[in-house]
Design brief:
Structural class: alpha/beta
Largest sheet: 5 strands, parallel
Strand content: 15-25%
InterPro entries: AAA+_ATPase, ABC_transporter-like_ATP-bd, ABC_transporter-like_CS, ABC_transptr_haem_export_CcmA, P-loop_NTPase
Bound molecules: adenosine-5'-triphosphate
EC number: 3.6.3.41
Low-confidence stretches: 194-213
Radius of gyration: 17 Å
Mean pLDDT: 88
GO molecular function: ATP binding; ATP hydrolysis activity; transmembrane transporter activity
CATH architecture: 3-Layer(aba) Sandwich
Protein name: Cytochrome c biogenesis ATP-binding export protein CcmA
Helix content: 25-40%
Keywords: ATP-binding, Cytochrome c-type biogenesis, Hydrolase, Membrane, Nucleotide-binding, Translocase, Transport
Number of strands: 9
Number of domains: 1
Shape: globular
Number of helices: 6
Length: 213
């Protein structure tokens, strides 16, 4: 499933933060988004995920092909690790075998009966990433996926991404750290293009837009 970004501009708080972005992400490919704090990585991922409309240009990919993991892990704190994954597997129509694979892949077997509320930050993150595996969706959009992860878990995560690419998936990843994915392309977002100026679609996504503008 190909993700095609054409002459895309994205805005936050009523201001364009990035524009003129064009790239294609093909099956088996990873693209790392880099750039300083505030350059617009999260905004770009949110726009690609369909959580906000582009200020200009197009995102072309079937919505059902996309799986987005934001800074928040999106966990249900009263449910156990297994129950959380079972919930998402059911939403996406996947079975128990996939759930077991996800537990294994993110080293969650020993924690499977623990409630999400009682996990450490890094363990929650591992569960949040395991969730991607039970979506069955080919195009992963990952925002700072390794926050709170120790070195070993970063390695686990990189292995999961590699497996996903090998199976014909793709990944667009905003990160400040080196994931060791030497095969990934890197897109440096240019802070000089991030100069704030009014968006044509100003004010659509944030109640504080006017105060900031
Ligand atoms: N809720 C919001 N309302 C208004 N402006 C915002 C909001 N969130 C972020 N911004 C602004 O939008 C711009 C892009 O932010 P974004 O979060 O996309 O950057 P980022 O590259 O992901 O940063 P970081 O590396 O710090 O995560 C920044 O200048 C930021 O100040």
């Amino acid at each position: 499933m190909e993700l095609v970004i054409s002459d895309l501009a994205v805005s936050r708080g009523g201001l364009v933060v990035l524009e003129g972005m064009s790239f294609t992400l093909s099956p088996g490919e990873a693209l790392i988004l880099r750039g300083s704090n505030g350059v617009g990585k999260t905004t770009l991922l949110r726009t690609v995920a369909g959580l906000q409309p582009p200020a200009a240009g197009h995102v072309s990919a079937p919505p059902e092909s996309l799986a987005y993991a934001s800074h928040a892990d999106g966990l249900k704190s009263a449910l156990t690790v297994t129950e959380n994954l079972a919930f998402w597997a059911a939403v996406h129509g996947l079975g128990r075998d996939r759930l077991e694979q996800a537990l294994e892949a993110m080293d969650l077997m020993r924690l499977r009966e623990r409630r999400a509320a009682q996990l450490s930050a890094g363990q929650k993150r591992r569960l949040g990433l395991a969730r991607m595996l039970v979506t069955g969706r080919p195009v992963w959009l990952l925002d700072e996926p390794t926050v709170s992860l120790d070195q070993q878990s970063v390695g686990l995560f990189a292995r999961v991404v590699r497996g996903h690419l090998a199976a014909g998936g793709s990944a667009l990843i905003a990160t400040h750290i080196d994931l060791g994915l030497s095969e990934a392309r890197v897109l440096e977002l240019d802070p000089f293009r991030a100069e704030a100026r009014p968006s044509v679609a100003a004010g659509f996504d944030d109640p504080f837009a006017e105060a900031i503008a």
